[in-house]
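Input sequence (227 aa), recorded before submission:
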Amino acid sequence: MGARLTLERAGVGPEVDKCEAYKAAYMLCVAFYLFERIQFMSSFAATFAVVDKGWFQSIGTAVQKIMQDEYYIHAEFGLQMLKHENLHGWGKKAAQELRPYIIQVYKEVLASEKSFAPFLLGEGRSLPGFNIGSMHTYADYVSQVPAQELGILDSVDQTWVSRNPFPFMEEWLKVDGFQRARQEMDDNAYLIGIMRDDTIDGPMDLDAEGQGPAWLYEPMKHFQNYA
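Predicted structure, token format:
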């Protein structure tokens, strides 16, 4: 879809249905959010089950940065994009029309995540405190919030998990959960204090005309009647 829009703007391709293009972009945000929020969490849990016992600490420190970036930055970016679009009529309508596809993508991501457990623990492999059942429960646990945020929890036939089966993961997810001597190793708490509020004149209205390049608002003309 992106390539077709680029060709159209360059004057060398046929006109693209802008509403279909918008829905494709909306689904991209959904997929991005689900991948960053659910995918690989079971493998992260397996990693930190080992690291939490005192083994491979340097590897754990590096992987922790990756996990926190995915969890707190990438996934949150996707979620905020969806929330912003859902403030408008076209976003609400797209979410409604795309609901079956959103549910399908959610189920596929969750099933993919659960498929990792038999591989990890198959063929005689084992990990202390881990079994296929607890890994599946953890996958259900971490996927509940995305299902709630997308408004599909009542449509995915999923048992609510109230307790994290891997409580050590709560500590490893904390940005400031570990204090490290900077003369001995790199500090991985780099997410702390990296932003400050400099909106002296109040919040900015990014949807207002004139707050960005003209091409940014041109597509919105096509969606005025979409809602």
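Checked by second reader. Residues 104 and 156 are 9 Å apart (CA to CA).
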